[in-house]
Amino acid sequence: LQVPCAPSQPAVGSESRRFANKHSKKALKASLTLGILLGMFFVAWLPFFVTNVTQAVCGCVPAGFFDVLTWLGYCNSTMNPIIYPLFMRDFKRAMGKYLPCCRRSGDPRPSAISLSMRNSNSGPRAATSLKNVL
Fold first, then answer.
1. pLDDT tens digits for 47-73?
2. In this structure, what DSSP letter does residue 102 have?
3. CB 54, CB 104: distance < 8 Å
4. Which residue numbers in the chain have pLDDT < 50?
5. Under a CB-based contact definition with an 8 Å cutoff, are residues 44 and 72 in contact?
6. If DSSP states are collapsed to H, E and C, what string results for 20-56?
7. Degrees (nearest 5) of the Cα angle 13, 16, 17?
8. Which of 20, 50, 51, 97 is deepest in the core (most CB within 10 A)?
9. For residues 70 and 44, is the Cβ–Cβ distance under 8 A?
10. Position 127 in a domain
11. Has residue 124 been placed in a domain?
12. Nearest 5°: phi and psi at 125?
């Protein structure tokens, strides 16, 4: 009685390794960016929420200290537009495309019509009338 062998897996070629390595680098970079964003969020907002609960329980938090912690949380919102372009190339390209201060001199300026068509998830359409809809 002879048992058929399972076909052996093909050897991983250099192109497959390169593909896997590229995706693992992207995953590592995405994890790093997410870790930094979450870390900044916790550093900025955790003291506010702890102080808020403390204030509700004992009422012993000075108003000025509470205001400082509130503004620390607000500063987190100003850090996100700084962190994203530092770590995400696609975000940086998109910002450079639409913000005049970040656009290169040779790049064409997008028109308002192309922006609205791109944001509406539709292409050019024929005019629709009530008769066509009914």
1. 999 999 999 999 899 999 999 999 999
2. G
3. no
4. 133
5. yes
6. HHHHHHHHHHHHHHHHHHHHHHHHHHHHHHHHHHHHH
7. 85
8. 51
9. no
10. no
11. no
12. -125, 155
C-alpha 99: how far from chain center: 18
pLDDT value at residue 80 = 81
Report the alpha-carbon distance of residue 53 to residue 31 in Å, rounded: 31
Contact 87, 95 (CB under 8 A): no
Domain assignment present for residue 3? The answer is no
Whole-structure pTM over 0.85, yes or no?
no
For the beta carbon of residue 69, count every other beta carbon within 10 angstroms.
20
Question: 76: domain range?
Answer: 16-98
DSSP assignments along 103-125, one per residue: --TTSPPPPHHHHHHHHTT----
CA-nearest of 93, 113, 115, 114 to 104 is 93
CA angle centred on 102, ends 119 and 34, rounded to 5°: 70
Q: How many residues does the chain have?
A: 134
Q: Considering the domain boundaries, does residue 87 fall inside one? A: yes
Q: Would you say 51 and 65 are in contact if contact means Cβ atoms under 8 Å apart?
A: yes
